[in-house]
Specification:
11 strands, about 40% helix, 7-stranded mixed β-sheet, 4-stranded mixed β-sheet, single chain, about 250 residues, binds D-malate, putative 2-phosphosulfolactate phosphatase, alpha/beta, globular
Length: about 250
């Protein structure tokens, strides 16, 4: 299994991605939020690049059948129902609803990954489910770290490392590029203290300073939402709950 890791979505090349399975990671916080919404029973999630696009899409839905969510500068967008905090996407808020979401980096990374033959969404909260799914698929992988404003974000690379570490533990023969090797090394040396390692990084510090410690705790917990979200034809849906199938 060949694995390449993109530090941000800007590195995606259609040519490289089209014969691979893409795994998009935005730990803080877009993929953590979308996975949480799907785990809590929302019908589907539609990622949008722009605020206007999300608002326009919402016009296709009856009142009370959709949630408009997302952020700009990590804050709730005016007029939207929810921000980009995983804890807001509780079952009573999202069950059976369509979530239309736009974020600064994560939703754009998901849409850009659509060149791949299959697109999955990952974060620490579903890392083992994604490893199990990738093991069953047995295909080459491109891990797309969303990054922050076009720059490398350590939280995403650590989760990429967790994914590679999980596949390695399954004794799957893996070929890694340099960022993949670095990510695995980083994760192996920080898995017991993710908060400590990330505490001085840019995005973690920003969210902490905004009083969003609960988001940080929720996003850095392992395997609390064991589902496999698949993005296809503009929509993210939960494929299945691996734990229930065991
Ligand atoms: C993003 O997509 O840029 C992030 O999820 C930002 C955030 O809300 O923390």
């Amino acid at each position: 299994m060949n694995i390449i890791v993109y530090p941000t979505r800007n590195y995606i090349e259609e040519r490289q991605l089209k014969d691979k399975v893409a795994v998009v990671i935005d730990v803080l916080r877009a993929t953590s939020t979308i996975i949480t919404a799907l785990y809590n029973g929302c019908k589907e999630v539609i990622p949008a690049d722009e605020i206007e696009e999300a608002v326009r899409l919402a016009k296709n839905y009856e009142k009370n059948t959709f949630i408009l969510g997302g952020e700009r500068n990590a804050e709730k967008i005016e007029g939207f129902h929810l921000s980009n905090s995983p804890c807001e996407y509780s079952r009573d808020q999202v069950e059976n609803k369509t979530v239309l979401i736009t974020t600064t980096n994560g939703t754009r990374a998901i849409k850009r990954a659509a060149y791949a033959k299959e697109v999955l969404l990952a974060s620490f909260i579903n890392i083992t489910a994604i490893c199990d799914y990738l093991e069953a698929l047995g295909q080459d992988i491109a891990i797309v770290c969303a990054g922050t404003e076009g720059r490398f974000s350590a939280d995403d690379v650590l989760a990429a490392g967790a994914l590679i570490y999980g596949l390695h533990k399954k004794n799957i023969p893996i070929e890694l590029d340099d960022l993949g090797l670095t990510a695995k090394f980083m994760y192996e040396h920080s898995m017991d203290d993710l908060h400590g390692v990330l505490s001085q990084t840019t995005h973690y510090s920003l969210l902490k300073d905004m009083g969003l410690q609960r988001d940080l705790d929720d996003c850095l917990r392992l395997d609390t939402a064991p589902i496999v979200p698949i993005y296809s034809d503009g929509i993210v849906r939960a494929w299945y709950n691996i734990v229930d199938m065991r």
